[in-house]
């Protein structure tokens, strides 16, 4: 019985440390979204023509790339073409991007990581409450 209690205590410590890590990452993600929204709002307010030009250029480039993938005979930007890198810097500065889609680091695939995350999520469900006014959990 003591071994079982010690195992439960260790498991709870691990889940608590994991929860703290996940919460820090989540808070950073929320901050990144808020900063992007503020940049986007400021860009639209201060220079609506620049924001519109960047959005249209981005849509045009994405349409050309999508057309290339549908018909490979159409041109695709070459590796030495700096247009994509330069437009990315402008889009990020203007807040016209989704920071949650950006990959900063990569790691090798961890076995059972999705299963561990699933079990963690299931263990945290009882702590969540739905707020009808906000429409979020």
Structural description of this entry:
This protein has about 140 residues and is mainly alpha-helical. It has one domain (about 1-125). The chain is built from four helices and no strands. α2 (about 50-70) packs across α3 (about 85-95). The model has no long low-confidence stretch (mean pLDDT about 85).
Number of helices: 4
Q: What series of H and E elements makes up the topology? A: HHHH
The beta-strand count equals: 0
Terminal CA distance: 37 Å
User: Mean of residue pLDDT?
Assistant: 87
| Shape estimate | elongated
What is the SS-derived class? mainly alpha
State Rg: 22 Å
Report strand %.
Answer: under 5%
Uncertain segments are: none
- How many individual domains? 1
Helix content bin: 55-70%
Biggest sheet character: none
